[in-house]
Amino acid sequence: MAKVSTRAYAASVSSIDRIPIAELQDDHLRTLIAGGETIAERKAKVPADGLAATVAAFANTAGGWILLGVSNDGEVIGFSVPGRAEPQDWLRDHLRGDVDPMPPFRCRRMAVDGHDVVVVRVYASEQTPHIVTQNGSIYVREHGGKQPIRSQAALLALSVKPEQAIADTISRMTSLPLVAQAFAHRDDLGEPIPEQTRVSDWLVSVAPLAVPEGSREKGLASPAKLRERVLEQLGRLGPPDRSWVQVRPHATGVSIDGTNQGTGHGAHLMLDAGGVIVGRVRVRLTRGVWHVGTTADEVITPLLGLTLDTLSDCGVTSKVLAHLHIRICATADEYGPVLSLQTHHESGELYAPPENEMFCGGDIELPAAEGDASALAERWMREIARQAGIGWWEPGRPAETTVRAPGFKDVPPSVPDGPFYALAGLLAPPHRRLPLLNVFVQQAAQAGPSQRRVAGGVRGDASGSYLALDAASRRQLHGGRQLHQPPRGAS
């Protein structure tokens, strides 16, 4: 391999740092291989002590490259990821538990002279310091290699960085023009459906603490994929063949607006080049109640997944802030801006007018492990239930008996179900009487007199939480009904 001068190498590396790893070409990789250990660390194989310290040092400093399958003297000998995993998944699993928090990085397999090389791009992090948990050390990158931090001043400099990053991220999530437009309350609620009483808007915004290079280009490169994601969301809200979608390009991003013409529900997605994704679902409400667990399964989790998947397509690998906003507008005189919620134990009402919306916050690491998004959605749903006054649904509260079918309460076997429900409705506080009696009348009729028990699905949660059931068991518990049935007469 031809030698590269130090000056030429410095200029080349400076330009390579601006190239997304997905667009790295053969000549770029050869420049990194030839240039030595200044910014690209070459490793013939994974060291006995792993890659945690090397990755953490790059993330704590200015970022850099790791080339697996290249010896220290620049000879390409090749490297194969164990098993059948993709390099990104393999390195994430390799680092999980060894570096806290997980550093931002991307991996790619490239061929050089007939050998596979795994190229790792570690980004300068906004979540410093990254600690190597094996020995509790904090490493930074200095000329020619990694070194542990040895001064309080250097540690404090790393510690202040995340606070500023969070403040900057929240500012982006509230002040960017397209974001402000996506969150602006619209007085025009569209054409109502038959028997409509209220309109509920569920908005999720996500933004990484560090916006990776090239994320704007990657996010805007495939509006067709964004359109398909909105269509998939609309398919959850009504007949898939009745969905209508429009793509709107903007100077700093793109937005996709969609409506399911069969139900009147809507789904929207906005991508701002500043690194913020906003997803929104609009559900038109009629009379009736929503099941707490089904709301988490069929509204919040898919909406959070829509925004996080879009962010992942932009190449984000870092901590992401996630915000949920709920707004309810009354469209009938006898109804207020409330959402009626229930578990199989209790019911309540969420008051969330646009001027006093319900808000939940949280964070999640990308790439997300399986179950991370649904866990965040369920934490949000727990807060919503508490806000609605559903006091039963609290962690640590013991369950009394087995879960039963719709229309029945978990009570001691000696107490008949029907009389218990009626008695609970009559003895409840005034604001709870009507919801409890309505639940009994509407659902007990559908469930029938038999006390069917849910077979399986309970995950041994001593809290008795409704979310201790998996999604399939929740649907069985509700008799297989949808989250919110459209009224009769709706096309």
Provide structural commentary.
The chain has 491 residues and is α+β, with helices and mostly antiparallel strands. The protein folds into two domains: 6-150, Methyltransferase, Cobalt-precorrin-4 Transmethylase, Domain 2; 174-396, Double Stranded RNA Binding Domain (2-Layer Sandwich). The protein contains 13 helices and 18 strands. It has a seven-stranded antiparallel β-sheet with strand order 10-11-12-13-9-15-18, with helices on both faces. The longest helix is centred in the N-terminal third of the chain and has 24 residues, at 152-175. Residues 1-12 and 393-491 have low confidence and may be disordered.
- The named CATH superfamily of the largest domain: Sirohaem synthase, central domain
Extract low-pLDDT stretches. Answer: 1-12, 393-491
Specify the overall morphology.
elongated
Derived structural class: alpha+beta
Average pLDDT rating: 76
| Total helical elements | 13
Helix content: 25-40%
What is the β-strand count? 18
CATH class of the largest domain: Alpha Beta
Distance between the termini: 69 Å
- Give me the Rg, rounded: 27 Å
**How does CATH name the architecture of the largest domain?**
2-Layer Sandwich
